[in-house]
Amino acid sequence: MSDSTDPVHLVVACHDGRGHTGKLAAAVRQGARGVADTDVVSIAVDEITPEQWFQLDDADAVIFGAPTYMGSASAAFHAFAEASSRRWLTRRWQDKLAAGFTNSGAKAGDKSGTLGYFTTFAAQHGMVWVNLGLRSGWNSTKGSEDDLNRLGYSLGVAAQSNIDEGPERMHKADLDTAEYLGRRVATYARIVVEGKRALAL
Questions:
Q1: Tens digit of pLDDT for each residue in 117-156?
Q2: How many CB atoms are located within 10 Å of the residue 166 CB?
Q3: pTM score, two decimals?
Q4: Which residues have a Cβ under 8 Å from the Cβ of 3 and sit 6 or more positions away?
Q5: CA Rg, the chain, in Å?
Q6: For residue 159, which of 145, 147, 173 has the smallest C-alpha distance?
Q7: Phi and psi for 175 in degrees, rounded to 5?
Q8: Apex CA 79: angle with CA 187 and CA 130, to 5°?
Q9: Is residue 201 predicted with pLDDT exceeding 70?
Q10: Measured between alpha carbons, how far is 96 from 88 in angstroms, rounded to an integer?
Q11: Measured in whole angstroms, how far is the alpha carbon of residue 162 from the centre of its chain?
């Protein structure tokens, strides 16, 4: 679709934490950039500028990311979410696509709490959630820890990193799953952009 006159604008809005979630964000960006005519912007939500708020306003899709701390997204992400209330009041993010990713130390690690929080946050803004769209991996004798979605989450990407290892030791399957999500969201955003253009919305 390289002849399109309307590029897809996708933002990855993330709090990095200790580096692991930032590495997931990089994989998400890589996947999204693999879809033709996709402009990808990365925003550190704990250092967000006024210009970056406007980039979020103009995005076709936003993929949220944060580490899971104590069963939910990090405090820095919660602060960003609360600061978005003006956008909520004006419905500025209405009907944008949204998705999410997170990381914690344990295999389960209450990551569903974070992904559920992202989903509710997006829904309050009137956004349309894009789930992971993958079956659970690594759940049979024929499976492998190298499967996509190896931890078996549906709402978004859930990665696991040992608490005594740096982001350079993150599991490749988790990074590949994050790349898959970026590509999936960018593809659906392209469908939405082309559909709006066709309907002259």
A1: 999 999 999 999 999 999 999 999 999 999 999 999 999 9
A2: 12
A3: 0.95
A4: none
A5: 16
A6: 173
A7: -65, -40
A8: 20
A9: no
A10: 13
A11: 21
